[in-house]
Specification:
This protein is of the alpha/beta class. It is about 35% helix and about 20% strand.
């Protein structure tokens, strides 16, 4: 485990964002028999340059970067990435939210600047490590949690286990247990998990999105190509379906805190992955996520693909601010969303659940 070091010199940026995880990233990864290549000669260099700090959690250190201030009683916003993603991808969302709120981005074990952790990886384990990290870092509850893709499973595990600490959720084109029953096999991670079980290795990681800031793209790529990141990626792929089934098995009661489901507006599945039919199924699964809370609404992010927080960071930041405000502010915004043309949707018998669905 690396010792703590002083804050590094990561370039400061003000626009754009990127995500290295999610369905497009998963589809792009190459799995080949045998581990390709070794670490770059300057592998340790990016590990010495980081914003925020390292905090020891159990037998390894996790990286966390918090900014902004929380007013008394105001929740802390916590940003959770998808598989293969890490804290830098949230920088545009984080910068916007930090103007009025305390907000933390962090790296799960093995990603970014965090140490790897031994043993299998699961959403439930990551939720427990996140709780320990926030406590050790002195970031007190309540929390508003944003989870992208696989990160949606992590924040829902957190909410099921630590419900009293959760003030709200934003699910960003989030994974759901039902996808393993309803989506075509070609887009499910069990395909890659089976390859890994047969001896395949992760040969290359998804590149940063085109919207990733040039000032950070080289650093981001260096971090994602580290052996520890490839190992974390493979471990989470192997445990993805089990993580989904674990969450489904919990059958937690519906939450009573504000929830916004932010869903991509642009299709991602090509014909080989089920095309329009698979996209319709994905949209249905996203709509069903509103049942996670009795105060829920759904926003469709026009023009954005799976990496909504990269392509429409202002929309995700707005969702986080509304959920953080809670109470009458969230209810009023929910009512405005329901009134938008084409936004209504009836979802009985959950009469208490908002049926709002709006495009932005």
């Amino acid at each position: 485990m690396r010792g703590d070091v002083t804050r590094g010199t990561v370039p400061e940026v003000t626009g754009g964002d990127g995500d290295h995880g999610g369905w497009r990233g998963l589809l792009a990864v190459l799995l080949v028999a045998g581990l390709s290549g070794g670490a770059a000669a300057d592998e340790v260099s990016p590990l010495e340059r980081y914003p925020g700090r390292l905090v020891v959690v159990g037998d390894h250190a996790l990286h966390i970067d918090c900014s902004g201030r929380a007013a008394p009683g105001q929740p802390v916003v916590v940003l959770e990435s998808g598989i293969g993603g890490f804290s830098l991808e949230w920088h545009a969302v984080k910068a916007a939210v930090a103007r009025h709120h305390r907000v933390c981005a962090y790296d799960r074990a093995g990603y970014g600047w965090s140490d790897p952790a031994p043993g299998p990886r699961s959403a439930a384990r990551s939720a427990g490590e996140l709780a320990a990290l926030l406590e050790a870092a002195g970031e007190a509850p309540p929390y508003v949690l944003a989870g992208h893709s696989y990160g949606g499973l992590v924040v829902r595990e957190f909410a099921a286990r630590y419900a009293a600490q959760v003030a709200g959720l934003v699910l960003v084109d989030a994974a759901t247990p039902a996808q393993f029953e309803r989506l075509p096999a070609a887009v499910l991670p069990r395909t890659w998990a089976a390859a890994l079980a047969s001896g395949a290795r992760v040969h290359s990681m998804p590149r940063p999105a085109d919207s990733f800031p040039p000032a950070l793209s080289t650093l981001g790529l260096q971090l994602m190509m580290l052996p520890k990141a490839r190992a974390a990626y493979a471990a989470e792929i192997r445990g993805f379906e089990d993580s989904a089934r674990h969450l489904a098995g919990l059958a937690p009661a519906a939450l009573t805190v504000p929830l916004i489901v932010v869903t991509r507006g642009r299709g991602e599945f090509d014909e080989g992955a089920g095309g329009d039919a698979a996209e319709r199924t994905w949209r249905e699964l996203q709509g069903a996520l509103r049942s996670v809370s009795l105060q829920a609404t759904q926003w469709i992010a026009d023009g954005a693909g799976h990496r909504v927080h990269a392509e429409r960071p202002e929309l995700v930041a707005r969702a986080l601010e509304l959920v953080s405000a809670g109470g009458p502010t969230f209810a009023a915004a929910d009512a405005r969303a329901a009134a938008r043309p084409g936004g209504a949707g009836v979802r009985p018998p959950l009469a208490l659940v908002s049926a709002a669905r709006a495009r932005f």
